[in-house]
Amino acid sequence: GLWSASLAASPRHALAEYALYVLLGVSVVQMAQEARKASVRRGVLWALGGACLLHESKSLVFYAWWLADRMTLTPDPFMVGFSNMRFVNHFQTATLPLLALLTTTYVPTRKWRVVSWGVTALWWALAFVLGGRGTQLGMAAGCGMCLVLFGQRAWTAGYLRQMVGACLAGVVLAWCLQWAIPYAVTGHMSDDFLFGKLNRLEDGGSIQTRLALWRAAWGMFLQHPLLGAGPMHFAALPNAMHLDASAPHNWVLQIAAGWGGIVLLAVLMLLGMAVKGIMHTRVWVREGDITPAKQEWMAYCTAFFALWTDGLVSNTFMVPIILTTVAVVFALMLGMAN
User: Fold this and answer.
1) How would you label 224-252 residue by residue, b for 16+ Cβ within 10 Å and e otherwise?
2) What pTM does this model have?
3) pLDDT per residue over 232-241, tens digit each?
Protein backbone atom coordinates (compact mmCIF):
# COMPACT_ATOMS: atom_id res chain seq x y z
CA GLY A 1 0.00 0.00 0.00
CA LEU A 2 2.80 2.43 0.86
CA TRP A 3 4.61 1.54 -2.37
CA SER A 4 1.42 2.15 -4.36
CA ALA A 5 0.84 5.50 -2.62
CA SER A 6 4.40 6.67 -3.30
CA LEU A 7 4.01 6.01 -7.05
CA ALA A 8 0.51 7.53 -7.35
CA ALA A 9 -0.27 10.63 -9.40
CA SER A 10 -1.13 12.49 -6.18
CA PRO A 11 0.87 10.96 -3.29
CA ARG A 12 -0.73 13.39 -0.82
CA HIS A 13 -4.22 12.00 -1.44
CA ALA A 14 -2.97 8.43 -1.61
CA LEU A 15 -1.06 8.70 1.65
CA ALA A 16 -4.12 10.20 3.38
CA GLU A 17 -6.20 7.11 2.61
CA TYR A 18 -3.25 4.84 3.36
CA ALA A 19 -2.85 6.46 6.80
CA LEU A 20 -6.60 6.11 7.46
CA TYR A 21 -6.57 2.34 6.96
CA VAL A 22 -3.31 1.85 8.85
CA LEU A 23 -4.72 3.76 11.84
CA LEU A 24 -7.94 1.72 11.65
CA GLY A 25 -5.94 -1.50 11.61
CA VAL A 26 -3.90 -0.44 14.63
CA SER A 27 -7.09 0.65 16.39
CA VAL A 28 -8.75 -2.74 15.78
CA VAL A 29 -5.75 -4.57 17.29
CA GLN A 30 -5.61 -2.26 20.31
CA MET A 31 -9.37 -2.35 20.92
CA ALA A 32 -9.36 -6.14 20.57
CA GLN A 33 -6.89 -6.37 23.45
CA GLU A 34 -9.39 -4.59 25.70
CA ALA A 35 -12.35 -6.48 24.22
CA ARG A 36 -11.04 -9.77 25.63
CA LYS A 37 -13.01 -8.80 28.76
CA ALA A 38 -16.73 -9.61 28.55
CA SER A 39 -17.57 -6.53 30.64
CA VAL A 40 -15.82 -4.25 28.11
CA ARG A 41 -17.65 -5.83 25.19
CA ARG A 42 -20.96 -5.50 27.00
CA GLY A 43 -20.30 -1.82 27.69
CA VAL A 44 -19.48 -1.14 24.03
CA LEU A 45 -22.60 -3.01 22.92
CA TRP A 46 -24.76 -0.85 25.18
CA ALA A 47 -23.03 2.28 23.86
CA LEU A 48 -23.77 1.28 20.26
CA GLY A 49 -27.36 0.47 21.23
CA GLY A 50 -27.65 3.90 22.86
CA ALA A 51 -26.37 5.53 19.66
CA CYS A 52 -29.08 3.74 17.66
CA LEU A 53 -31.76 4.81 20.17
CA LEU A 54 -30.52 8.41 20.01
CA HIS A 55 -30.76 8.48 16.22
CA GLU A 56 -34.25 6.95 16.33
CA SER A 57 -35.37 9.55 18.88
CA LYS A 58 -34.07 12.42 16.74
CA SER A 59 -35.71 10.92 13.67
CA LEU A 60 -39.11 10.64 15.38
CA VAL A 61 -38.91 14.23 16.65
CA PHE A 62 -38.14 15.57 13.18
CA TYR A 63 -40.75 13.26 11.68
CA ALA A 64 -43.42 14.70 14.01
CA TRP A 65 -42.31 18.25 13.18
CA TRP A 66 -42.48 17.41 9.46
CA LEU A 67 -46.04 16.15 9.80
CA ALA A 68 -47.07 19.06 12.03
CA ASP A 69 -46.12 21.47 9.23
CA ARG A 70 -47.93 19.21 6.75
CA MET A 71 -44.88 19.13 4.50
CA THR A 72 -44.31 16.45 1.88
CA LEU A 73 -42.37 13.69 3.55
CA THR A 74 -38.76 13.19 2.41
CA PRO A 75 -35.89 11.07 3.77
CA ASP A 76 -34.50 14.09 5.68
CA PRO A 77 -36.12 13.38 9.08
CA PHE A 78 -34.56 9.91 9.13
CA MET A 79 -30.97 10.92 8.33
CA VAL A 80 -30.38 13.71 10.86
CA GLY A 81 -26.66 13.82 11.62
CA PHE A 82 -25.70 12.00 8.41
CA SER A 83 -24.90 13.72 5.11
CA ASN A 84 -26.26 10.83 3.08
CA MET A 85 -29.01 8.32 3.85
CA ARG A 86 -26.78 5.49 2.64
CA PHE A 87 -24.41 6.26 5.50
CA VAL A 88 -27.31 5.58 7.86
CA ASN A 89 -27.87 2.25 6.11
CA HIS A 90 -24.20 1.25 6.44
CA PHE A 91 -24.35 2.07 10.16
CA GLN A 92 -27.48 -0.09 10.39
CA THR A 93 -25.72 -3.04 8.74
CA ALA A 94 -23.10 -2.97 11.48
CA THR A 95 -25.48 -2.46 14.40
CA LEU A 96 -28.69 -4.39 13.61
CA PRO A 97 -27.22 -7.76 14.66
CA LEU A 98 -25.94 -6.21 17.89
CA LEU A 99 -29.33 -4.72 18.79
CA ALA A 100 -30.88 -8.17 18.42
CA LEU A 101 -28.13 -9.53 20.67
CA LEU A 102 -28.92 -6.98 23.39
CA THR A 103 -32.59 -7.93 23.26
CA THR A 104 -31.89 -11.67 23.38
CA THR A 105 -29.17 -11.77 26.00
CA TYR A 106 -28.36 -8.63 27.96
CA VAL A 107 -31.73 -7.01 28.80
CA PRO A 108 -32.57 -8.14 32.35
CA THR A 109 -36.38 -7.88 32.55
CA ARG A 110 -39.26 -8.71 30.23
CA LYS A 111 -40.53 -5.12 30.19
CA TRP A 112 -37.18 -3.72 29.04
CA ARG A 113 -36.77 -6.60 26.63
CA VAL A 114 -39.94 -5.46 24.87
CA VAL A 115 -38.55 -1.91 24.71
CA SER A 116 -35.26 -3.19 23.30
CA TRP A 117 -37.10 -5.30 20.74
CA GLY A 118 -39.09 -2.20 19.72
CA VAL A 119 -35.86 -0.26 19.19
CA THR A 120 -34.60 -3.09 16.95
CA ALA A 121 -37.87 -3.18 15.00
CA LEU A 122 -37.76 0.60 14.44
CA TRP A 123 -34.13 0.30 13.31
CA TRP A 124 -35.31 -2.26 10.75
CA ALA A 125 -38.14 0.09 9.73
CA LEU A 126 -35.70 2.91 8.96
CA ALA A 127 -33.72 0.52 6.78
CA PHE A 128 -36.87 -0.18 4.75
CA VAL A 129 -38.06 3.43 4.69
CA LEU A 130 -34.69 4.66 3.39
CA GLY A 131 -34.61 1.92 0.77
CA GLY A 132 -31.34 0.42 2.01
CA ARG A 133 -31.09 -2.46 -0.44
CA GLY A 134 -27.45 -3.11 0.45
CA THR A 135 -28.36 -3.33 4.14
CA GLN A 136 -31.23 -5.69 3.39
CA LEU A 137 -28.99 -7.86 1.20
CA GLY A 138 -26.26 -7.86 3.82
CA MET A 139 -28.61 -8.80 6.64
CA ALA A 140 -30.12 -11.61 4.55
CA ALA A 141 -26.62 -12.95 3.88
CA GLY A 142 -25.54 -12.53 7.51
CA CYS A 143 -28.60 -14.29 8.94
CA GLY A 144 -28.37 -16.97 6.25
CA MET A 145 -24.71 -17.69 7.04
CA CYS A 146 -25.51 -17.78 10.76
CA LEU A 147 -28.17 -20.42 10.06
CA VAL A 148 -25.85 -22.40 7.78
CA LEU A 149 -22.95 -22.33 10.23
CA PHE A 150 -24.78 -22.96 13.47
CA GLY A 151 -27.86 -24.79 12.22
CA GLN A 152 -30.97 -25.16 14.32
CA ARG A 153 -29.11 -23.85 17.38
CA ALA A 154 -29.13 -20.33 15.87
CA TRP A 155 -32.94 -20.45 15.79
CA THR A 156 -33.67 -22.29 19.03
CA ALA A 157 -31.28 -20.05 20.94
CA GLY A 158 -33.63 -17.19 20.16
CA TYR A 159 -31.17 -14.88 18.38
CA LEU A 160 -32.40 -15.42 14.82
CA ARG A 161 -36.01 -15.48 16.02
CA GLN A 162 -35.51 -12.00 17.45
CA MET A 163 -33.99 -10.83 14.17
CA VAL A 164 -36.76 -12.22 11.99
CA GLY A 165 -39.53 -11.01 14.32
CA ALA A 166 -38.07 -7.50 14.50
CA CYS A 167 -37.65 -7.49 10.70
CA LEU A 168 -41.31 -8.36 10.12
CA ALA A 169 -42.40 -5.74 12.65
CA GLY A 170 -40.11 -3.29 10.88
CA VAL A 171 -41.98 -3.83 7.62
CA VAL A 172 -45.25 -2.90 9.34
CA LEU A 173 -43.67 0.13 11.02
CA ALA A 174 -42.18 1.28 7.71
CA TRP A 175 -45.62 1.12 6.11
CA CYS A 176 -47.06 3.19 8.96
CA LEU A 177 -44.25 5.78 8.87
CA GLN A 178 -44.33 6.33 5.14
CA TRP A 179 -47.95 5.84 4.16
CA ALA A 180 -50.53 5.30 6.89
CA ILE A 181 -49.54 8.12 9.28
CA PRO A 182 -48.77 10.77 6.59
CA TYR A 183 -52.06 9.99 4.86
CA ALA A 184 -54.01 10.26 8.11
CA VAL A 185 -52.38 13.61 8.97
CA THR A 186 -51.87 15.32 5.62
CA GLY A 187 -54.20 13.45 3.30
CA HIS A 188 -51.47 12.42 0.89
CA MET A 189 -48.53 10.00 0.75
CA SER A 190 -45.04 10.34 -0.63
CA ASP A 191 -43.13 7.86 -2.77
CA ASP A 192 -40.03 10.04 -2.80
CA PHE A 193 -37.77 7.51 -1.16
CA LEU A 194 -38.85 3.88 -0.71
CA PHE A 195 -41.08 3.58 -3.77
CA GLY A 196 -38.87 6.04 -5.61
CA LYS A 197 -35.87 3.80 -5.05
CA LEU A 198 -37.81 0.74 -6.14
CA ASN A 199 -38.94 2.54 -9.29
CA ARG A 200 -35.38 3.61 -9.96
CA LEU A 201 -34.30 0.01 -9.58
CA GLU A 202 -36.96 -1.09 -12.07
CA ASP A 203 -35.80 1.59 -14.52
CA GLY A 204 -32.27 0.29 -14.20
CA GLY A 205 -30.80 3.65 -13.15
CA SER A 206 -29.12 2.42 -10.00
CA ILE A 207 -27.90 -0.76 -11.67
CA GLN A 208 -26.56 1.09 -14.72
CA THR A 209 -24.65 3.54 -12.52
CA ARG A 210 -23.05 0.73 -10.57
CA LEU A 211 -22.16 -1.18 -13.72
CA ALA A 212 -20.50 1.95 -15.11
CA LEU A 213 -18.52 2.37 -11.87
CA TRP A 214 -17.51 -1.29 -11.85
CA ARG A 215 -16.36 -1.14 -15.48
CA ALA A 216 -14.31 1.97 -14.70
CA ALA A 217 -12.73 0.31 -11.65
CA TRP A 218 -11.97 -2.83 -13.63
CA GLY A 219 -10.37 -0.75 -16.38
CA MET A 220 -8.21 1.05 -13.81
CA PHE A 221 -7.13 -2.29 -12.37
CA LEU A 222 -6.15 -3.59 -15.82
CA GLN A 223 -4.01 -0.50 -16.34
CA HIS A 224 -2.29 -0.92 -12.95
CA PRO A 225 -2.69 -4.63 -12.05
CA LEU A 226 0.00 -4.99 -9.37
CA LEU A 227 0.02 -1.76 -7.35
CA GLY A 228 -3.15 -0.02 -8.55
CA ALA A 229 -3.46 3.65 -9.46
CA GLY A 230 -2.97 4.62 -5.83
CA PRO A 231 -5.27 4.74 -2.76
CA MET A 232 -8.13 7.24 -3.17
CA HIS A 233 -7.31 7.70 -6.87
CA PHE A 234 -10.47 6.05 -8.15
CA ALA A 235 -12.39 9.06 -6.80
CA ALA A 236 -11.16 11.15 -9.75
CA LEU A 237 -12.81 8.86 -12.30
CA PRO A 238 -16.54 9.35 -11.51
CA ASN A 239 -16.15 13.14 -11.80
CA ALA A 240 -14.74 12.73 -15.28
CA MET A 241 -17.61 10.38 -16.11
CA HIS A 242 -20.19 12.80 -14.60
CA LEU A 243 -21.29 10.18 -12.07
CA ASP A 244 -22.36 11.07 -8.52
CA ALA A 245 -19.95 8.74 -6.71
CA SER A 246 -16.47 8.68 -5.21
CA ALA A 247 -15.95 4.92 -5.00
CA PRO A 248 -16.95 1.87 -7.09
CA HIS A 249 -19.52 0.60 -4.54
CA ASN A 250 -17.65 -2.72 -4.33
CA TRP A 251 -14.82 -3.36 -1.90
CA VAL A 252 -13.09 -5.90 -4.18
CA LEU A 253 -12.90 -3.46 -7.09
CA GLN A 254 -12.11 -0.58 -4.75
CA ILE A 255 -8.99 -2.38 -3.50
CA ALA A 256 -8.05 -3.70 -6.95
CA ALA A 257 -8.29 -0.31 -8.67
CA GLY A 258 -6.65 1.79 -5.96
CA TRP A 259 -4.29 -0.55 -4.14
CA GLY A 260 -3.61 -3.21 -6.76
CA GLY A 261 -3.74 -6.97 -7.07
CA ILE A 262 -1.05 -7.65 -4.45
CA VAL A 263 -3.00 -5.94 -1.66
CA LEU A 264 -6.28 -7.48 -2.89
CA LEU A 265 -4.74 -10.95 -2.71
CA ALA A 266 -3.50 -10.25 0.83
CA VAL A 267 -6.95 -9.04 1.94
CA LEU A 268 -8.65 -12.08 0.40
CA MET A 269 -6.17 -14.38 2.19
CA LEU A 270 -6.85 -12.66 5.51
CA LEU A 271 -10.59 -12.88 4.91
CA GLY A 272 -10.25 -16.57 4.11
CA MET A 273 -8.33 -17.12 7.36
CA ALA A 274 -11.07 -15.32 9.28
CA VAL A 275 -13.80 -17.45 7.70
CA LYS A 276 -11.78 -20.59 8.45
CA GLY A 277 -11.53 -19.48 12.07
CA ILE A 278 -15.29 -18.93 12.22
CA MET A 279 -15.86 -22.42 10.80
CA HIS A 280 -13.87 -23.88 13.68
CA THR A 281 -16.37 -22.47 16.19
CA ARG A 282 -19.34 -24.40 14.80
CA VAL A 283 -18.93 -27.39 17.12
CA TRP A 284 -18.60 -25.16 20.20
CA VAL A 285 -21.82 -23.30 19.38
CA ARG A 286 -23.83 -26.38 18.43
CA GLU A 287 -22.92 -28.55 21.42
CA GLY A 288 -23.75 -28.08 25.07
CA ASP A 289 -26.02 -25.50 26.67
CA ILE A 290 -27.00 -22.20 25.11
CA THR A 291 -24.94 -19.49 26.80
CA PRO A 292 -24.75 -15.69 26.42
CA ALA A 293 -21.25 -16.14 24.95
CA LYS A 294 -22.62 -18.32 22.15
CA GLN A 295 -25.40 -15.82 21.43
CA GLU A 296 -22.82 -13.04 21.32
CA TRP A 297 -20.62 -14.97 18.90
CA MET A 298 -23.56 -15.62 16.56
CA ALA A 299 -24.32 -11.88 16.50
CA TYR A 300 -20.72 -11.00 15.61
CA CYS A 301 -20.70 -13.61 12.84
CA THR A 302 -23.95 -12.21 11.45
CA ALA A 303 -22.51 -8.69 11.43
CA PHE A 304 -19.25 -9.93 9.88
CA PHE A 305 -20.89 -11.57 6.88
CA ALA A 306 -23.49 -8.79 6.54
CA LEU A 307 -20.81 -6.08 6.31
CA TRP A 308 -18.71 -7.86 3.71
CA THR A 309 -21.83 -8.60 1.64
CA ASP A 310 -23.16 -5.05 1.89
CA GLY A 311 -19.73 -3.83 0.82
CA LEU A 312 -20.07 -5.66 -2.50
CA VAL A 313 -22.78 -3.20 -3.61
CA SER A 314 -22.04 -0.10 -1.51
CA ASN A 315 -19.33 2.09 0.05
CA THR A 316 -19.35 0.37 3.45
CA PHE A 317 -15.54 0.32 3.62
CA MET A 318 -15.05 3.85 2.30
CA VAL A 319 -16.89 6.33 4.54
CA PRO A 320 -14.78 7.27 7.65
CA ILE A 321 -17.68 7.39 10.16
CA ILE A 322 -18.84 3.96 9.02
CA LEU A 323 -15.29 2.59 8.95
CA THR A 324 -14.96 3.54 12.61
CA THR A 325 -18.10 1.57 13.49
CA VAL A 326 -16.93 -1.39 11.41
CA ALA A 327 -13.57 -1.28 13.20
CA VAL A 328 -15.33 -1.40 16.58
CA VAL A 329 -17.47 -4.40 15.52
CA PHE A 330 -14.45 -6.28 14.16
CA ALA A 331 -12.49 -5.47 17.33
CA LEU A 332 -15.28 -6.89 19.50
CA MET A 333 -15.31 -10.05 17.40
CA LEU A 334 -11.52 -10.40 17.44
CA GLY A 335 -11.36 -9.71 21.17
CA MET A 336 -13.89 -12.44 21.89
CA ALA A 337 -12.08 -14.86 19.56
CA ASN A 338 -8.85 -14.21 21.41
Assistant:
1) beebbbbbbbbbbbbeeeeeebbbbbbbb
2) 0.92
3) 998 887 666 6
